[in-house]
Amino acid sequence: MNSRRDFLQKIGLSALALHLAPISGWANGTDHHNEIYDGPVLRVAIMGLGSYGTRVAEAMQTCTKAKLVGVISGTPSKVKEWQSKYKIPEKNCYNYENFDNIKSNPDIDAVYVITPNGLHHDQVIRVAKAGKHAICEKPMAVNAREGQEMVDACKKANVKLLVGYRMHFEPKTLEVIRMRKAGEFGKILFFQGLCGFTIGDPTQWRLNKQLSGGGSIMDIGIYAINGSRYMTGEDPVWVTAQETKTDNVKFKEGVDETIQFQLGFPSGAVASCLSTYTMNNLDRFFLNGEKGFAELLPSTGYGPIMGHTHKGELTQPVTVHQTVQMDQMAGIIFQNKQPVVPIDGEEAVKDLKIIDAIYLAAKTGTKVSIKL
Amino acid sequence: MNSRRDFLQKIGLSALALHLAPISGWANGTDHHNEIYDGPVLRVAIMGLGSYGTRVAEAMQTCTKAKLVGVISGTPSKVKEWQSKYKIPEKNCYNYENFDNIKSNPDIDAVYVITPNGLHHDQVIRVAKAGKHAICEKPMAVNAREGQEMVDACKKANVKLLVGYRMHFEPKTLEVIRMRKAGEFGKILFFQGLCGFTIGDPTQWRLNKQLSGGGSIMDIGIYAINGSRYMTGEDPVWVTAQETKTDNVKFKEGVDETIQFQLGFPSGAVASCLSTYTMNNLDRFFLNGEKGFAELLPSTGYGPIMGHTHKGELTQPVTVHQTVQMDQMAGIIFQNKQPVVPIDGEEAVKDLKIIDAIYLAAKTGTKVSIKL
Fold first, then answer.
1. In whole angstroms, what is the distance from residue B169 CA to residue A190 CA?
2. Where's the Gfo/Idh/MocA-like oxidoreductase N-terminal domain (chains A, B) (predicted)?
3. Rounded distance, CA A171 to CA A194, Å?
4. For residue A7, what pLDDT band results from cuts at 50, 70 and 90?
């Protein structure tokens, strides 16, 4: 059966298989590729050893500033496998019952929560209470209220809360953002984000409302939502949305199959987006301005991002997104570095507010105002 | 100042300048390119000698089945110019007051109405009453009610009513339609049509509600509307729409600047479209099915249409759209031939019903049902 991860792998070459060198320098170009790093290394425990957790673990093998040192899992056999594969000591292995004990473990700095969406809220708050920095896969939570509680808990515990927005470090994406900031597209007028894939196994947690918090919007539409903001450089002020369901068995109540949504921005720019679990051949971003345009295709998959602008092809290097992300997170946590586009809990809450508004707009058929 | 026609010329190579050979055979491939034509020639008078009328006149110079033989214009100097350029006899020249007299002219078979949208209704009905076949540029009218009256008038007068849907004869477009009918895309899931350009001269008739009947939707959005039907092979059953206006001076009350609209089809397929007078770099069609996709870019401009599908690049020949259209119209009028996609008044009324629904949806913010 297809899984989302399988699909994302298929839509481009497997970056992992290519053993591509990660960019170790900062995305803004102030650091150098071949710098020798002698700063602190971010020691990370991964919570949730599924397919994406595995991808992150593999990618971290080439990190220079971050290191996989622990695991949290409910499956002892997986823990054993990871221990052996990544040389993880017994004392850094936890399960979902006892991981609060991580508090007294001085060899772990941060926990990367890569579990089903519906579990993030409680797990991240437990991580915070254990005094560890929390890294959380997106969507950070299943709604903005839960997301805000996570932000508050981390603030209270004086730990960082970062979210796995891997595109915020992707070189071609950053080049488009640089061009936009430099005015090379002129006034921004339109963004289009088409995100989706044909989801396989109907029994997977992504199709279980309690675990996923929703459907395609949560899992893949969030790329268009977040992308609409970093591509245009604005936060939307209204949203309209239309839901279409062709398969009521696979996509049960509360699990969206296909949602079209439109966003309006303060400048007058508009966005037109599609999120779906029923089609492949998407993964397209298009940004249009008065003076030029940018197109990313594929735009958010794991494989090489490709794209062009009115000036020609984008030739920035191909990176392993998760390797770069984890290295950058070390700098954010230890040196308070600021990425070009934020990846903190507040950024995630903005996306969750938009998701809340999309669901409300789809349900009511009305234009919903957004205040971020 | 930019005009729409200037823009459409710019977005691709000028097909006219290339002196490309038109396809004289039928688009469905049953006729041959080099056939010797000895059937009746459609003798056409053009009403409205503006930039598009000029384009049609030029394109008709290489027609084999249609011939420009007359003009109807309110500008005597233009009439003189055309008479000299195209060898049009004095007796085939009319103005807007006296063109009903065309009734008694045995040397004209049809009148191609290429005037501002708001004038089509009355002019086409006068053409029908004069007993001549009417060819009308799109949009055929400014609303469905007027359109239906035109259809009824032509039926009553026993003359044909054809509309200038030039894309219905464009080879790459027809190949996508053939592939869709053959099931090569599988079940159709999604259509996207992005149509627009930055309109220039604020004094032009296209920005005058009385003459244009609306704004960008009338002029360029209609390509996405009509395209959504011939690309998916279905007629929509609902529409939602969002209007955005950033310039209230240039785009007055009733003249839309930018409208996003979404369509739902009986099969569950959806469409996401954009119509605008405020951005270039658009002219994109994307059709997505369960088994494959097609992309046309540019999709409806005058220059060479380009595109690809999941099978590769579309390599069908480049044609001068207006030449092929006029030759094909001769066959439709004299031999009752049926094009792959209809180009008659009923087809145009369907688009006008969708336009009515889009304006209503944008105004009310509701999902509007459509019955075509």
1. 31
2. 42-165
3. 20
4. very low
Residues 6+ apart with CB under 8 A from A247: A257, A278
Burial of A14 (0-12, 13-18, 19+ CB in 10 A): middle
Q: Which residue of B has its CA nearest to A290?
A: B279
Instruction: Tell me if B274 and A190 make a contact (CB, 8 A cut-off).
Output: yes
Residue A291 annotated to the active site: no
Best CA proximity match to A175, nearest among A292, A281, A272: A292
Domains of chain A: 20-166 (3.40.50.720), 168-317+342-369 (3.30.360.10)
The alpha carbon of residue B32 is apart from the nearest alpha carbon of chain A, in Å, by 36
Which residues lie closer than 8 Å to B121 by C-beta, 6 or more apart? B141, B142, B146, B147, B149, B150
pTM for this structure?
Answer: 0.90
Cα B2 to Cα A6, A179, B32, B85, B281: the distances in Å are 48, 26, 39, 26, 15
CB A117 within 8 A of CB A141: yes
Smallest Cβ distance to A260: which of B194, B272, B286? B272
Are the C-beta atoms of residues A279 and A196 closer than 8 Å to each other? yes
Tell me which of A223, A277, A302, A359 is the catalytic residue: A223
What residues form DSSP beta bridges with A243? A259
CA B144 to chain centre: 16
Any idea which residue has 């932000």 for tokens? A151
Say whether the peptide bond before residue B298 is cis (omega within 30 degrees of 0).
yes
How far, rounded to the nearest angstrom, does the alpha carbon of residue A54 sit from its chain's CA centroid? Answer: 15
Chain A hits for B242, CB-CB cut-off 8 Å, are: 240, 262, 264, 270, 367
Contacts of B190 in chain A (CB under 8 A): 274, 276, 279
To the nearest 5 percent, what fractions of chain B are helix, strand and coil?
40, 20, 40
- Portion of chain B with pLDDT greater than 90, in percent: 89
Q: Which two tokens stand for residue A30?
A: 């102030």
- Distance, in Å, from the CA atom of B231 to the CA atom of B289, rounded to the nearest integer, reads 11
Q: Which residue has the tokens 């099915």?
A: B289
Cα distance between residue B200 and residue B250, in whole Å: 10
* Interface predicted TM-score of the whole assembly (ipTM), two decimals: 0.88
Q: What is the pLDDT of residue B39?
A: 87
Q: In B, which residues are within 8 Å of A310 by CB distance?
A: 281
Please indicate whether, in this complex, the C-beta atoms of A242 and B260 are within 8 angstroms of each other: no
- DSSP letter, residue B64: S
Query: Which residues of chain A have a CB within 8 Å of the CB of B286?
Result: 194, 284
In the three-class reduction of DSSP (H, G, I as helix; E, B as strand; rest coil), residue B313 is classed as strand
B35 pLDDT band, cuts 50/70/90, is low
Q: Which residues of chain B neighbour A267 with C-beta distances below 8 Å?
A: 246
Find all residues with CB under 8 Å of A350, minimum gap 6, and list them: A229, A235, A372
Q: How many residues does chain A have?
A: 372
**Which A positions 220-279 lie with beta carbon below 8 A of chain B?**
240, 242, 244-246, 258, 260, 262, 264, 267-268, 270, 272, 274, 276, 278-279
- Cβ of B240 within 8 Å of Cβ of A240? The answer is yes
